[in-house]
Amino acid sequence: MKSIVEILNIFFNAKHTGCLFISDGDDFKKNCRVYFYKGNIYAAEYLNKVGFDALLEIIAFKDIKYKFFNNKNINREDFSIDTLTVINKLKEASMLELNKKIRFIAEEREVSFSAKEWKILALSQHKINLDNLIKLSAYSKEEVLKIVSGLKDKGIIELVDTWEEKEENKVNSRKYTPRVFWSTLSAELSKTLGPVTKEIILDEIYNLEEDVDKFPINKLPLLIEKLASEIDNPKVRLDFQKKMLATIKKL
Question: Which of 17, 19, 91, 238 is disulfide-compatible with 72, CB 3.0–4.6 A?
Answer without folding.
Answer: 19
